[in-house]
Amino acid sequence: MESIGFLYPWIKAIHIMAVIAWMAGLFYLPRLFVYHVERAVHGSDLDQVFQVMEEKLLRVIMNPAMIVAWLCGLLLISMGAFDFGSLWAWIKLVCVIAMTVMHMWLAGRRKDFVLGKNTRSGRYYRMANEVPTVLMIIIVVMVVVRPF
Questions:
Q1: Are 61 and 21 in contact (CB under 8 A)?
Q2: pLDDT of residue 1
Q3: Which end of the chain is more exposed for a tag (fewer CB within 10 A), N or C?
Q4: How far apart are CA 27 and CA 129, in angstroms?
Q5: Tens-place pLDDT, residues 10-60
């Protein structure tokens, strides 16, 4: 079997693009929740607009971007991009898993809005909006600076 090493830069580029799209969604969805909880009454026309926006963001952008980011990341690992002996790589992996958990948590909160069962405030979602930012900072520092 011929080496697929020539694909490495393409896989890395696709990985970066998918991560950017995924992060955009992770930054935007909690902000939509802030506006949703503060401005819309369950069952109103505005509530329906927010629900469509949130569902499309998850289904059309965030879910595919997360899947592509993970698949490309796993391919890069299989091509030697992960240094199993370095702490930076493990910290990055833990943060990526935490980012995935955050994604799933946000998807669950969207379902709360659909069912009219949201109990969280705009302030709560503003604070939740900071989690992906902190994780992204740690991930970028681990990959670029490699302090450990």
A1: yes
A2: 37
A3: N
A4: 6
A5: 999 999 999 999 999 999 999 999 999 999 999 999 999 999 999 999 999
User: Can you list the pairs that 87-91 forms with residues at least 24 positions away whose Cβ atoms lie under 8 Å?
Assistant: 87/148, 88/142, 88/143, 88/146, 88/147, 88/148, 89/142, 91/138, 91/142, 91/148
- Domain segments of the chain as ranges: 5-144
Beta-carbon contacts of 88 under 8 Å, excluding residues fewer than 6 positions away, are 142, 143, 146, 147, 148
Q: Which residue has the tokens 């469509």?
A: 52
Q: Name 141's Cβ contacts closer than 8 Å, sequence gap at least 6.
A: 147
How far apart (Å, rounded) are the C-alpha atoms in residues 15 and 96? Answer: 13
Percent of the chain residues past pLDDT 90, beyond the cut:
92
Which helix or strand (DSSP H or E) is residue 31 part of?
Answer: helix 8-39
Q: Pick the closest to residue 66 from 34, 97, 110 (CA basis).
A: 97
